[in-house]
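To whoever is on call:

I kicked off a structure prediction for a single chain this morning and the downstream step that reads the tokens threw a length-mismatch warning. I double-checked the sequence; it's 152 residues and nothing unusual in it as far as I can see. Pasting both halves so you can look.
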Amino acid sequence: MSLEVPQYDLQIRSESRKLDYNTTEHKIEYLITIFADVSYPISWNTNQQSRFIESLILGIPIGASLFLLRAASPLVVDGRQRIMALLQFCNNDLVLQNLTQLSELNGFCFGDLTNERQNWFKRRLIRTVYLLKSLQDSDIEDLRERLNDCEK
């Protein structure tokens, strides 16, 4: 009795990626420290950034950020806009606007919050996925495209 493997299964086996990764959670204060000197182009407008911050404050789970471990600092493969919104907000460069559920925070920046609320926010956990081995630039771009195209 011969069990023939379907062609699609052979293709899946040959094309599947063997990505080593580790999933963890980090406090916002850690992320803003390791990415403090990073500057990515911001494509989210102020409303999108504000809504993201509002979601964090409300305790809504957000998608994991994907990083590639490197010697100097992690490279953000996916989650650049989330990281930049966190940096903008925690550096008082983002004034919250058009919030719907937390309308009392419209017009606020991070420094307007009480110290207790600032510390609470910085202790919020963000899920992160670290790719543990080096990837070619083309593989990184392919991952970015796949992850971002799936969100559309």
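Update from on-call: the warning came from a stale cache, not from the record. Cleared it. Sanity check on the structure: The helical segments are 7-15, 28-34, 46-58, 80-90, 115-122, 137-150.
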